[in-house]
Structures are given as structure tokens and as C-alpha cells.
Amino acid sequence: MDLPTGDSLTWSGQYEYVERANKRLQVLVPITLAIIFLLLFLHLKSAYKSALLLGFLPLCIVGATWLMVVLPAAYMLIQRYCYRRQLQGNERERAQTTEEARGASLP
Asked: How far is 68 from 89, CA to CA, in rounded Å?
């Protein structure tokens, strides 16, 4: 696109905000990763183990995202199973209490 002499074209608005955020993240993300590595190193006292754990970070993010998609369905199944087990346990306790009450009232 040819502009007349003296005219200029600038992008503003959301594009400008995204560009500023990207520049800020290019500084903050490496600093944050360095701090995490330092904390791991101070705790584990091994650069190899710290780097290994930090290397698994992307896999953890993928796994956590996958679980957020799958977990609601699995959580419902687990919750139903636990609820049924709890009901069965309550019924057993009631039956035992009733039997004990009957036994205690007999001479």
C-alpha cells in the first residue's frame, strides 16, 4: 500500500495492547522459570534433578488440561460409586444398631 508523502499508518487499540503484553511476557516468563529452577535446586541440591523436573513441566500442563476435560465425567462416576457405598454402610450400621437394641431389650 502506497501512502502519500507525510502520511503514516499506525496500529492501535487491541493490537497495541497485545504487542505490549507479548514484550512483557518475553521478560517475565524466563525470570519466572529461573526462579522456579532456583527453588528446585535449593530444595533438591541437584541441577540434574531440577532440570529434569522443569523439563516435565510442559507434559504436566498437557496432562492437567486433559484431566480438566475428562475429569468431570469420571468424577461423577466416582461420586456415584462412593455415595452408593456410603448408603450401603449406613444401612449396615442401622441393621446392627437395631439388632443390638433388640438384643439389649430381651431379658
From this structure: 31
3 state SS of 3? coil
Averaged confidence pLDDT in the chain: 82
The alpha carbon of 61 is separated from its chain's Cα centroid by a whole number of angstroms, namely 8
In whole angstroms, give the CA distance from residue 59 to residue 52.
12
Please list the alpha-helical segments (H only) found in the chain: 14-44, 47-55, 57-105
Q: For 77-93, give the DSSP string.
A: HHHHHHHHHHHHHHHHH
Residue 9 and residue 3 in contact, taking contact as beta carbons nearer than 8 Å: yes
pTM of the model: 0.51
